[in-house]
Amino acid sequence: MTDTLRPRVRTLVDSSRFQWFIIGVIVVNAVVLGLETSPQLVDHAAWLPAVGWATVGVFVVEIALRIYAHGGSFFRDGWSLFDLFVVVIALIPASGTLGVLRVLRVLRVLRLLSAVRSMRRVVAALAATIPGMISIGALLVMLVYIAGVMSTHMFGGTDPEHFGDLPTSLLSLFQVMTGDDWANVIRPVTDAHPLSWLFFIAYILVSTYIVLNLFIAVAVEALEMQKAEDVREIVDEVEESEGLVLEAVESLRAEVAALREELARRDAS
């Protein structure tokens, strides 16, 4: 009985209809979590907690079905473990020392990352960009440090409030890089040294536009690589399906040939 039931359950949990149903439950859960942030609404809508726990019940049943359907392979998949962690967080009681962790229930919204294929692709691409992002981040840190040392030596006496020492200069340059009121940060220096704007313009161009474009380039490259990998997986699945079809055709041909030989022997006798 178990051998025949497990494939059926696997077919169910892997079907697109079941996945879309879970996505709908996730969206309802997200809406309920947002509504529960309003005490007035919670007082006038007693059904909110019931709906919230109903969605948790659906998640628990889904995880149980997936564990039964996939067996040990469930615990070897990172996304499945993430789903299990989110569901366990949802079951933390409201009272007791662990009650504060119930704020992590909002993580249930992240189930969309594992439920939607396109989101999984983006997350995988972002994870693939980490080595490149670290290198670009190190380059940015070096640029800011060099600019911080230079600005401290050149403008520390003119504007000690923003460039009096290295930590202050680094903070001011970070503000300039983000574009947060940067004109007022550099105005005392540019008023005293008219040509100092060349330094700040060069710094903004290098730290913001060039480095930002490098970040974007790495992210786009990772997305393209992830897309190519998905295409390869689809091609492999199609080729595997074609192989199974060809095997089935060859098997049918062999059976037809055997039947013809059997009929020929009967006719001969």
Task: Summarize the amount of helix as a percent range.
Answer: over 70%
> Rough shape?
elongated
CATH topology of the largest domain: Helix Hairpins
Name of the CATH architecture of the largest domain: Orthogonal Bundle
C-alpha end-to-end distance: 46 Å
Radius of gyration: 31 Å
Given the helix and strand composition, which structural class is it? mainly alpha
Beta strands, count:
0
CATH class of the largest domain: Mainly Alpha
Share of β-strand residues: under 5%
Q: Could you name the ranges where pLDDT drops below 50 across 5 or more consecutive residues?
A: none
Provide the domain count.
Answer: 2
With helices defined by DSSP (H or I, 4 residues minimum), what is the helix count?
A: 12
Mean pLDDT: 78
H/E series, N to C? HHHHHHHHHHHH
Major β-sheet annotation: none
General description of the model:
The chain is an all-alpha fold and 269 residues long. The protein is built from twelve helices and no strands. The longest helix is centred in the C-terminal third of the chain and has 72 residues, at 197-268. The protein starts with a helix and ends with a helix. The chain folds into two domains: 2-115, Four Helix Bundle (Hemerythrin (Met), subunit A), CATH 1.20.120; 117-269, Helix Hairpins (Orthogonal Bundle), CATH 1.10.287.70. The protein has helices at residues 2-14, 16-35, 39-44, 47-70, 78-90, 111-115, 117-128, 130-155, 160-163, 166-178, 182-192, 197-268.
